[in-house]
Each structure stands twice: as structure tokens, then as C-alpha cells.
User: What shape does this take?
Amino acid sequence: ELFGAERGAFTGADQARAGRFEEAAGGTLFLDEVGELPLALQSKLLRVLEERVVRRLGGSRDVPVDVRLVAATNRDRTRETEEGGFRQDLYFRLAVVVVNVPPLRERPDDVPLLARHFAARLAERHGVPVPSLTDDALAALSAHAWPGNVRELRNVLERSVVVRGGAPIRAADLGLAPATAPLDRAHREREALLAALRRTGGKREEAAKLLGISVRTLYYRLRQWGIG
Assistant: This one.
């Protein structure tokens, strides 16, 4: 799929087919969960990045490609490279610019915006009117821990959109487990603060920047919650 295939390269390949790199020529190609690629594919990807050419499956010639590559992973990059699960040379090729996106549970204020976005897109896909989300639904979504991150949110919204058929989506329609009932805002803020401190190795100035709050506010919350 990434590199394409020539006619007869495998059973059912009755015509040549361009891969994703060729299709994205002159533009941007997004590779989600790049950490899941097997080592053999990692080697091929590294060759594309270094030589800017691809060779289709069953082909004998290189095809030049000019693509901006954006990759994403939810794995620990350092540990994966140290344990041999991800090629270090490929990682350094990809990690020219690294953007760390906090998990959804650390940014509950983003949930309503994402939920409305998914509801609109999924309603269009399934041919139903765009549903509204009630206040209690938005509160439940914002409070959920989202262990499956944005994919889980999308799946919850898709199920609700289909079931409701355009009617307003309520908290009861979301199917969230009782264990993920809405948490109070202070608890969520405390968990987000602790997560930021873990991510920055306890560096409070960096944690404050990550959370988008002042250092003074961070210290106030540390005292308020008795965090040393």
C-alpha cells in the first residue's frame, strides 16, 4: 500500500498500482502509528527518506518521490529504540521536529470541540442529521478518562450518532461505563498537573508552560493539593 505494486506482483494484481508515496507526490503523507511498522518495512521507509525514491512491489526501477512526511506514534520512542523495536536511524530521520500531544484526559477542555466535530462528520457519513450534544453529554465526555484516546472518543460518538439517528445525544446514550462517571474539575486539574510534572521530570517551570498556566498558579495549586 505504501510503495505500490506492479502488475502480476501478487495474486489478483491485474494492473499496476501506485503506492501512497507516489499518490502524495508534492504534498504531505501522514503515517499514523508508525511505531507499529515491522522492522522490514522500517528499512524500506528509511530508504525512501534517504534516497527519495520508491520501488514498487515486483518492480525493477526506482520512482522519484518528493513528499513531506508526518508520522505519529503513542509508543515510548526512547524505549522502543533501546529495545530494538524501532530503528534508531529511522527515528532520527523522522524526529526532525517533534510535537508531543498530551493524551485526551489531560486536555478535557478540548473534548467538546472534538465531540461536535466528530458528530458532524459521522452524521454526514451515515446520512443522518447532525445531532446536538446535551450539556450532560458534554460533561460526561469531558470527565471520561479516555484510555483509548481520540479513537475511543470517535467510536463513542459514531455509535451514538447511528443509534440516535439525528436526535440530540444525551449522556445516557454514550454508553460510558459507570466507573467513568464525571469527575469534579479540581480532580481533573490535579491529575493533569501530576501528569505534566511526570512528563517534565518534575521541572515546575516546564510543567506550567505545558499546562498553559503561570508558574505562580502552579505553585499555588501544589500547595492547595499538598503536593511536595
Q: What stands out?
A: Strands lie at 28-31, 53-54, 63-64, 68-71. The radius of gyration is 22 Å.
